[in-house]
Amino acid sequence: MILLDGKMVSEELNLKLKNKVDSFDVKPQLDIILIGNNPASLSYVKGKKKAASLVGITTNLHHLDENISQEEVERLINSLNQDEKVDGILLQLPIPKHLDQEYLMDLIAYEKDPDGFHVVNQGKLFQKRKTIYPATPKGIMTLLDYYNIPIEGKSVVVVGRSNIVGMPISKMLLDRNATVTICHSKTKNIKEITKTADILVVAIGIPKFITKDMVKQDVVLVDVGINRVDEKLVGDADFDEIKDIASYITPVPKGVGPMTIHSLLFNTVLLYESKNTK
Amino acid sequence: MILLDGKMVSEELNLKLKNKVDSFDVKPQLDIILIGNNPASLSYVKGKKKAASLVGITTNLHHLDENISQEEVERLINSLNQDEKVDGILLQLPIPKHLDQEYLMDLIAYEKDPDGFHVVNQGKLFQKRKTIYPATPKGIMTLLDYYNIPIEGKSVVVVGRSNIVGMPISKMLLDRNATVTICHSKTKNIKEITKTADILVVAIGIPKFITKDMVKQDVVLVDVGINRVDEKLVGDADFDEIKDIASYITPVPKGVGPMTIHSLLFNTVLLYESKNTK
Prior knowledge:
Protein name (chains A, B): Bifunctional protein FolD
Keywords (chains A, B): Amino-acid biosynthesis, Histidine biosynthesis, Hydrolase, Methionine biosynthesis, Multifunctional enzyme, NADP, One-carbon metabolism, Oxidoreductase, Purine biosynthesis
Binding site for NADP(+) (chains A, B): 160-162, 226
Order of helices and strands of chain A: EHEHEHEHHHEHEHEEEEHEH
Oligomer: homodimer
CATH superfamily of the largest domain in chain A: NAD(P)-binding Rossmann-like Domain
EC number (chains A, B): 1.5.1.5, 3.5.4.9
GO cellular component, one term (chains A, B): cytosol
Largest sheet of chain A: 6 strands, parallel
Number of domains of chain A: 2
C-alpha cells in the first residue's frame, strides 16, 4: 500500500506556488468573508489564512456579526467585486439561515471565485470548458496525478453527489475518460457496486461507511470524509481495515484536506494571472 | 414489451399545451436562427415550426446566409434579447465553422433559452436548482414518467456523455435517486456494464451499437440515436433484436425525437409564463 500523502504533496506544491508568487511585484489577494463564529469555520479559515500567508498570498478577513443583514453582505460583495486589488472572494460556508446563500454565491463575480462554486463556473465544468475547478475535486485530481495513477478506461465509483465534491469529481474523472458510477444514500446493493471500483472516491459524510468487504483488492481509495468522532477526525472509510487491501489510500486527516487548501491557493493565483493577462 | 410511444405521447401533451396557449391573449413567440442550408437542420427547423404552429406558438425564422459575419449574428441575438415579444431564441446547430458557437450560445439571454443549453442553465442543473432542462433529456424524463416507470433506486446506465444528452440525463436521473453509470467510447467491457442496467439510455451515435447480448431481461431501453443508414433512420440500439427482451423500448423514429420537440415547446411556454409573472 502506498499512502496518498496529501500533506507532503500539498507542502511541495505550495512551495512551488510560493516561488511563482515571489516573482510577482504585486501579490495576489484573497478576501475571506466569515459570518458568525461556527467553530469549524473559524478553524478552516485559520488554516486557509495560514497556508495563504506561507505562499505569499495576501488575505483580508471580513469577520461579520452573525446577525448581519442580507443587504450589508451584498454591499460587501459588490465592493469586493469592484475592487481591482481583490483576486478571490471566498464566502465561508455555512452562513446563517436568515441569509440567501444562493443569491450571495451568484453575486460573487465568477472571475473572482477561487472555490469554483459559482453557477457559471460549474456550468462551464458541465460543458467541458476551461473553468475554475472546485477546490476539493481539483485537489483529488492533483493528488492522483502526482502519484501517476492511471485514470483513462478505469472503473471509478463515486459515493456522494454534492455539487461541491461528488458531482464535480465525477465529471472531472469522466473528462479524463474514466467510466464513472455515482452512488448515494438511495443506492441499492451499494457494496456490489463499490467492489467493482478501480478508483473509489467517498464523500458521503458517514464515519467508516466503507469497510473492507466493500472494496476489491488493489483499489485506489480516496476518502473525502472528515467526521468528528470522540474528538478525533475519522474518514468515510475504515482506513485500518482497508489499508492492506488498497494499492493507494488517502489518510484522514492529512489526505484530501490539505490538497483542498492547496487548490484554493492555486485557483487564487490562476485568477490573479488571468486578471493580469487581460 | 411495451412501446415507449413518443409520437403518441407528444401529440397528447402538445394538445394539452395547446389548450393552455389558447387561453393566452398574447401568444408565446419562438425565434429560430438558422444559418446556411444543412439539409438535416432544414428538416429539423421545419418540424419545430410545424409543431409550434399546432400548439399556437408563433415562430419567426431568421434564415441567414452561411457566410454571415460573427458581428451580424451577434447583432441579431442582441436585438432578440432586447425584444420583449421574444420568449425563446433557438440557434439551430451546427453553425458554420467561422462563427464562435460558444460565444453566441453564451450571448443568448439564459431567460430566453428553450434548449436549456446556456451555461447558466446547465450550471443550475449541475447545482440541482430550478432551471430550463435541455429538451432531449427533459423529453426522456417526461416519457418515462408518462409510463410510470420507477426511477428511484434503479440502476441506470447512460452510454454517451455529451452536454446535450448524456450528461444532463445522467444528472436528472441522479436527482430522481437512480444510481447512474456513465459510459462512453473509452469504456472497457461496456457489455458487462450495460447488462447491469434496469434503465439503459443510449446516445452514442453509432447505428445498432447496443445488441441483445448487451442488455438484461426486462430492461427499459431509451434510444436517443438518429442515424441515417441507406436512407433509413436507425437508432443506437438494434430494436428488432432487443424488442422481445425489453420491458419497455423506444422506437426510432417516433420515440425520443417527438418528445424532444414537445420539450422545446414546453420550455418556450415556461419561459413565456415566467416572463409574465415577473
